[in-house]
Amino acid sequence: MDSRPRSFPRAPFLVFLLLALGIVVAGGMIFRHETTRARKATEEHLSSIADLKAAQIANWRRERIRNAESIASNPLNSLRIRPFLESTSPGDRGDDLRDWMESWRKTHGYHDVVLLDRDRRVRLSVGSSPPFIGAYASPNVEEALRSGRPTLSDIHRLSGWDFIHMDLYAPLLSTARGGKQKESIGVMMSRIDPARFLFPEISSWPVPSRTAETLLVRRDGDNVVFLNELRHRKGTILSLRFPVSDSRLPAAAAVMGRQGIMEGIDYRGLPVVAALRPIPDSGWYIVAKVDRDEVLAPLRVRTLVISSATGLLVLLTGLGFLLWWKRNEARHFRTMYAAEEARRESERIYKELFENNPNPMWVYDRDTLRFLAVNDVAVSHYGYSREEFLGMTIENIRSPADVPALRESVRDVPGTIRKVGTWKHLRKNGEVIDAEITTHDLEFAGRPARLVLATDVTERKRAEAERDALERQLALAQRMESIGRLAGGVAHDFNNMLVVILGHAELLLNRPAAADPTVGESLREIRKAGERAANLTRQLLAFGRKQVLEIKTIDLNRVIAGLKGMLSRLIGESIEVTTHLAPDLASVNADPFQIEQILLNLCINARDAMPDGGRLTIETTNVSLDEEYAKSHAGVRPGPYTMLAVSDTGSGMDAETAGKIFEPFYTTKEKGKGTGLGLSTVYGIVKQHGGSIWVYSEPGRGTTFKVYLPGVDEPAEEEETTPRASVRASREPETVLVVEDDESVHDLVRRILSGAGYEALVARSGHEALALAKEAKAIHLLLTDVIMPEMSGRVVAEKVAAFHPGVKILYMSGYTDDVVAHHGILEEGVHFLQKPFTSHSLANKVREVLEG
Length: 852
Description:
alpha+beta; 7-stranded mixed sheet; 6-stranded antiparallel sheet; 31 strands; 23% strand
C-alpha cells in the first residue's frame, strides 16, 4: 500500500484560488478608492481651515496696527500728551491722561498700557502689570521712536516674569515747534494677552474632531518654537522646541518654507496629516493638522464589512471544497493509519532516548552543517535557545582555529559510531569548553545527517592540568629539598676544614715570622681564600635551611627603609627605584639580617637584568592566601601573609629558565660574574622562615619575585640602638671543656683558648667528655660540637650539667640539625657559634657566654 500522502486535487483547488484572488483584488480596489476619496476630502478640509486661520490671524495683526496708527496721529498728542511729557512740574500727575489710557485699555482689551517719553522712561501706566518695559522692549521702543511707525512684537515672556504677552508700540507724533514736520515725542506701549483673543481664535475648529488642532509656530535659530497652547500637551508655550532639521515634523517643515499638505509625525510622535501656511507680514506659520487614524477611521468600518463579506465567501467556498476533499481522503487515511502509528512509536522511542540523555546531543545536516535538532541538555549547557540553534551551523560553536579541521572531519566517509576526539566548543557567553565528541551517521527527514553526543570534559582537563602543575611543583620542591640536604651536609664537613684553615692562618699571622712580607702576604691570601670559602658555605647552608636564625618580630617596611641608602649605591643612577609600602603592614617573625639578604639579593639580581637602566619597584602588602590558592601552589598553607614583591623592567626569562632559577650554581650571567647561589640563598631563607617565593616573568616583559611570609598580629620590636660592649679576656682561672670529634678542630680550639688565658680540657667524644667532667673540680663553660657520633652535643650538655649545675653551655656546628634549634630557630637561652669561626670570634663568644 502506498503510504505517501496524496496530493491535493489541482483543478478544484485552482478554481478556489482564482475565486478567492478575484474577491481579494476587488476588495483591495474598493479600499483604495475609498482611501483616496477620504484623503482628498481631508486635505481640502485642512487647507480651507489653514487658509481661514491664516487670514484671521493676519486680520487680527492688522487691526492691532491700525489701533496703534490711530494713537500715533491723535491730535491729543500735541494738545495734552506733549505738554505732560515735557512738563517739569511735580504737581502734574496726568490724571486725565491716565483716565483716557484706562478707557483705551478696556475698550480694546489690552492687558496694560504704558506711556513712555522719548528717553524711554515710564511716565504713566495702567493695568495690573508692573510699570517697566524690560530688555526685550527697549530696542522695539527705540525703533518706534526712530521710524515713527507702529510695530507689533512677537509673543514672548520676560525674564523672571511668567506672563506670556505681545507688545504693541505706537509712536506719539506731534508737530515740531516752529515747523510743520511731525516728530516722535514718546511711545504708547500696549501689552496684549494672546490667551484672551489670539489663542482662542487659533484653537477653535469649525467641526467636531477628536484630534484636530491648529498650531502657531515660528523659527528661533535652529529650532521651531510652538507659540500657542497645545490641545494634547499643556504648558508648552515658548518652551516646546524641535530642531528644524526634523523634516518629518510639520511645524519644522512650515518654518523651512514648505506650504500645502504633508504627512508626518507631530510633537507627540503620532502620524498626522497637516496643512502648512505662512502668516502674511510676520514670522509666524500656521499648521492645521489631524491624526491619520481619525482620517482613516470611517474607512475601517467599510473595510471591515467588505473584508468580512469577502472572507465569508472565501470561507464558504473553502469549506465546501474541504468537505469534498475530506470525504475523498478518508479512505486513504484509514489505510495509512497503521503505518503512521508505527512511525510515531519509532519517533517516540527516538525522542525519549534523544531528549533524556544526560549529555548534549544534536543532529546536523552533513551537507549544510546546519543544526536539525538539539536536545534540552544542549540548550541549557550551551546557552542558546532551540530556535537559535536551528538557525546556526556547527561551525558557530567551534573556535575559529578548529573550523578547517572540522570541515575536513565532516568530509570523512560515513560510518557507524565513531569517537572523533576532543574539540574546543564555544558557549553563547563566550566561554570555551572542551567537548569529547562521538558521532553516528543517519538519515534525518530524508537528508544525510549526523548524530553527535558531546561530553563536556572541561573540568576533567582542568583538574588534570592542575594535577600536572602540582606534580611539577612537588617534583621541583623534592629536587630542591634533596639538593638542600646535600648542600647542607657538604657545608657541614667543609666548615670543619675551614675552621682549621682560618684558625691556623690567624695564629700564624700573630707570630713574628709573619712580619716577613712574603710570609705575611701568603698567610693573608690563605685567610682571604678561607673567608671566601666560608661565605660560600654560608650560602649553601642558607639554601639547605641549616643556618641559625635570630628571630625577632620585625616590620618589613622598616627594614626596606633602612636599606634604601645602600640600595641606591648598589643599584646605580641609571635605574629608578620606587617603593609602594602598605601603611598597615602586618609584622613578621624573622631574622632581620636574613631578610636584608633576601632584599639585597633580589635587588642585585634585578639590577643585573637591566644593564641599560630601567625601573625597580619594591612593594609590600597584606594578603590572605585561601584554600584555592594553596591547592595550586605546593607547600603553601592558607592564612594571612605579608607579601614582599621586587619587580624590574629588565630582559625577563622564559618558563624553562624560571623553573631552574632557584637551583644552586645555576646562573644566566656570563662566566665569572656570578656564583649562582644568590637566588638559591633567597629560596632557602624564605623556606626556613615558613614562607614561599614565586617568580613571574616573560622574555622582554621584566620579572617579579613575590615573597610570602606568615604575618603575625604583634607589634614590631624596637631596634637596638646601644652597641654591645667589647668582652674582655679571662683574668681569673676559668676551665673550658671542649668536646669535638674532629681532631684538627679541637686542637685548634685548645690553642686559641689557652692563648686567651683559659684552661682548656679537650674530649674527642661524649663519653670522654663525661669522664673529664666527673674528675674536674670545676668546669665554667662547656664548648661542644652539636653533631657527633654516639652522643649528640645536647645529651653531652645535659649530663655535664648534672656534674656541674652552674656550667655555661656554648654549642658550635656547621649547622644545627634541630638538635639545639627547631628549623634553625634557636631556643631561648641557647648559645650557638656558627662554623667556621675566627680565633677572635671564638674568644669573644666564650667571654660573652661566661659573663652572660
